[in-house]
Design a protein that fits this description.
The complex is a heterodimer of chains A (190) and B (541).
Chain A: H1 4-15, H2 19-29, H3 36-51, H4 59-78, H5 83-88, H6 92-96, H7 107-119, H8 123-133, H9 139-146, H10 150-168, H11 180-189
Helix pairs in contact in A: 2-3, 2-4, 3-4, 7-10, 8-10, 9-10
Chain B: H1 3-19, H2 25-37, H3 39-54, H4 79-84, H5 86-99, E1 108-111, E2 118-121, E3 127-130, E4 135-140, E5 145-157, E6 166-170, E7 173-177, E8 181-187, E9 190-197, E10 200-204, E11 213-216, E12 220-225, E13 228-233, H6 235-242, E14 248-255, H7 256-266, E15 270-273, H8 276-279, E16 282-288, H9 292-303, E17 305-309, E18 313-319, H10 321-325, E19 334-337, E20 356-359, H11 369-381, H12 392-396, E21 401-409, E22 415-422, H13 427-440, E23 455-463, E24 489-495, E25 503-509, H14 510-528
Parallel strand pairs in B: 5-6, 15-18
Antiparallel strand pairs in B: 1-4, 2-3, 3-5, 4-5, 5-8, 6-7, 7-10, 8-9, 9-12, 10-11, 12-13, 14-16, 17-18, 19-20, 21-22, 21-23, 24-25
Classes of the chains: A mainly alpha (190), B alpha+beta (541).
């Protein structure tokens, strides 16, 4: 058994830097674009469960093998097995032996990336994130300064945080607001 | 299919709440519970935590880069106005932040250890770069911008703010700034201010001293010592003073004692000078400040200074070769020498670290200036300068003579090949001369020479034993053997047998081609049996 702290360290240092490559891999091999984040989350989950017995020596190969198997399983479950889906996974080997240049961003690049990420947020969102991150204000202080409700601030920050994190890990950093259909779906299910 | 979105949202809320001051132990328990519910929760939370922490670097952006915009004009409640101009939003954020009254804070403290180097940005957008072993305090708020330099050296890049002077208190002086770039160094009781851009004012800090101030402009260096302040215009010295920002130490004709003191500022491993005689040696060059070993090795190789390495010190003792073997050797003035052990960089002169200009004349043995000048003139033409490097073996064998050589130089000024054009009559001495040049010489680079091109340099070293009579001036270098100018190469392509695509390329000089053609014709004629017979009826006699 691996304890939680080293599991967390492994996950942050080895798995998350691969997120960009993993997302691209899923996107290439799965037709429904809106499923990508869910699939990624499930792959992470499986990777974590597997690593609990022992930290894998080759994280990249490990993660992508899980990703492939998971995609195949999902495809079977959805009964949408298509030629191109299965055929494309043979390109996996190449992926595994790639240079891995996206693994670690240097500190300066990280700052530049964070700056880009915050720049491309919508204005309100950027403002609250800026107050939070750069000036270190709490939710309450932010709400007071901007003259808006604390729950609004909280909502903005969580949205901005998710987009920014996505951007920092190589995604497009867009805010994903639940669409109307989904919102209704959720309301129905509650 | 938005399970992951929901989890992520919840994780973001947890993360947010955890940052709040109201976060309690009970909250932590609830978070732990939520995390242990499912690995999906854990993964989402860790991912957000990781990325959010990475974005912490944003705090470095805290420097306002644009003038303050009016906060009141733009209300957050007017989203249209905000959306209309993203840039404006950005600037007003920054602007509001800088114009907001801040609580009176205790001074910020910054410190670097020996060998340290730190860049800090102050809340008003000014940046301060701390050199080794430096300590300063800073108070920056709406009304005051002040820094106390307790010790050491710092480079200031002050953000311009009208009506808000930036004041630096350093010992007996205060330095007042409006917005500029300059460095301040406290050297025991002295103060050195080197200004890169703009202007600063240096005042005496004591109240009872008559108001006396000096304005220091760009390219000026002010040295304040005791009650006097000396201002000199010298962009070179400013560059020297600022070389530490790139980790270098630029020394220009300073004594070895001073050079050692400079190195000791940056390194735990201290240089100790054991012999007062070598303390006054004159040294110059560009060095990596934290590479004291390389400097010591250079001293040993070039000066023949005895170096003894211990864990915390390098002791410099007397000179081996020079004192014993060549006491009367001519004293050349300056040579451009490359230390092989220093990491290679670009060419010498432009602040590069891979070469050191070492003046070889010990200050104590300074001859009268006229003779020195004469020698300088001569040295420009020949390589007397290498005399201090007189090979010990040749010295013992009492070999001397004139060695002419040609050096090939690459685009960076480093010699790539060396050839002897005139022998001294001692083959080993010739060889050693070439070795010395290859190891120690560096040449000025010409900007017109590209990387792939080469230049060559012809020179003469006149080795003279210390005791022997000296000529007034050694003969100017001359070409020893005049070779005929090389013939131009002519290249031709021949299709290879058995292939339509392959070609063979043959290059020969014109005379060789002629010979080759004649040979081919002869062979052909032999095969045909037409040798020495007439082939063309019309041309035959």
């Amino acid at each position: 058994m691996v304890d939680e702290a080293s599991l967390n360290a492994w996950f942050c240092a080895e798995v998350l830097p691969l997120e960009r490559a993993l997302t691209n891999f899923i996107r290439r091999n799965w037709r429904v674009a809106s499923d990508v984040t869910d699939l990624r989350q499930e792959i992470y989950e499986r990777a974590l469960i597997g690593a609990r017995s022992a930290i894998p020596a080759h994280t990249r190969a490990y993660l992508f093998t899980i990703a492939r198997n998971h995609l195949i399983n999902c495809a079977k479950r959805h009964q949408v097995v298509s030629i191109d889906l299965v055929g494309d996974t043979s390109g996996l080997e190449l992926e595994c032996h790639g240079a891995g240049s996206e693994r670690q961003l240097s500190a300066r690049e990280e700052l530049r990336r964070a700056q880009q990420g915050i720049d491309q947020l919508p204005p309100r969102c950027r403002e609250v994130i800026w107050l939070r991150k750069v000036e270190g204000l709490t939710t309450k202080e932010t709400a007071e300064r901007l003259g808006i409700g604390a729950d609004t601030v909280e909502k903005q920050i969580t949205q901005g945080m998710r987009a920014l994190v996505d951007f920092m890990l190589g995604g497009d950093g867009k805010i994903r607001r639940p669409t109307f259909a989904r919102r209704r779906l959720r309301r129905d299910s509650q | 299919m938005n399970r992951s979105q929901q989890i992520e949202e919840r994780a973001a809320q947890w993360l947010l709440q955890r940052e709040e001051p109201s976060w309690s132990a009970a909250d932590q328990v609830r978070l732990d519970e939520w995390l242990s519910e499912s690995d999906a929760h854990k993964v989402a939370f860790w991912r957000l935590e990781y990325g959010w922490r990475k974005a912490d670097r944003l705090a470095a952006l805290a420097a306002p880069s644009q003038p303050a915009a009016r906060w009141d004009d733009l209300s957050w409640r007017r989203p249209l106005a905000l959306a209309a101009s993203l840039v404006l939003v950005f600037s007003f954020l920054v602007g509001h932040w800088s114009s907001a009254p801040q609580p009176t804070q205790s001074p910020l403290r910054f410190e670097t250890a020996v060998g340290g180097h730190k860049l800090i940005s102050l809340p008003d957008g000014s940046r301060v770069e701390l050199n080794t072993d430096t300590q300063l305090r800073a108070v920056v708020n709406a009304t005051t911008r002040a820094v106390w330099l307790e010790r050491g050296e710092a480079f200031f890049d002050i953000a311009k703010q009208p009506n808000r002077n930036f004041v630096i208190y350093a010992g007996t002086r205060t330095i007042t700034v409006l917005g500029t770039k300059f460095s301040v160094r406290r050297k025991q009781s002295d103060l050195v201010v080197a200004v890169l851009e703009g202007r600063v004012r240096v005042d005496a800090a004591e109240a009872n001293v008559a108001a006396r101030h000096a304005t220091v402009g760009a390219g000026d260096v002010a040295i304040a010592s005791g009650r006097s302040t000396l201002v000199t215009k010298s962009p070179e010295v400013v560059q020297e003073q600022l070389a530490w920002r790139t980790g270098r130490l630029l020394l220009h004709d300073v004594t070895l004692a001073d050079a050692a003191a400079e190195f000791n500022r940056y390194n735990q491993k201290k240089l100790v000078i054991d012999d007062p005689q070598i303390a006054s040696l004159s040294v110059g060059g560009s060095f990596l400040a934290r590479n004291v070993e390389a400097f010591a090795q250079l001293l040993r190789d070039v000066y023949g200074v005895d170096t003894r390495h211990r864990t915390n010190t390098i002791t410099l003792a007397g000179r081996r070769v020079v004192d014993r073997a060549a006491p009367d050797a001519p004293k050349p003035v300056a040579a451009s020498l490359r230390a092989t052990n220093i990491p290679r960089g670009s060419q010498c002169g432009a602040g590069a670290a891979d070469c050191a200009v070492v003046s070889l004349a010990p200050a104590t043995e300074e001859a009268d200036s006229r003779a020195a000048q004469e020698r300088v003139l001569r040295n420009e033409r020949n390589w007397d300068v290498l005399h201090k490097l007189y090979p010990a073996r040749a010295l013992a064998a009492r070999e001397e003579g004139l060695v002419g050589f040609t050096v090939k130089i690459d685009a960076r000024g480093n010699p790539t090949a060396c050839k002897i054009t005139h022998s001294s009559g001692h083959p080993l001495l010739d060889l050693e001369t070439c070795q010395l040049i290859m190891v120690h010489a560096t040449f000025k680079t010409a900007s017109t020479v590209t990387v792939s091109q080469q230049r060559s340099y012809e020179g003469v070293v006149n080795w003279r034993l210390p005791g022997s009579a000296r000529e007034a001036a050694p003969p100017a270098p001359q070409r020893v053997a005049e070779a005929p100018p090389p013939e131009e190469l002519i290249c031709k392509r021949f299709p290879q047998t058995g292939s339509n695509a392959a070609f063979e390329r043959r290059c020969m000089t014109k005379s060789e081609w002629q010979r080759s053609t004649a040979r081919t014709r002869e062979a052909w004629d032999d095969a045909q049996g037409t040798r020495n017979t007439c082939q063309s009826l019309t041309r035959c006699d």
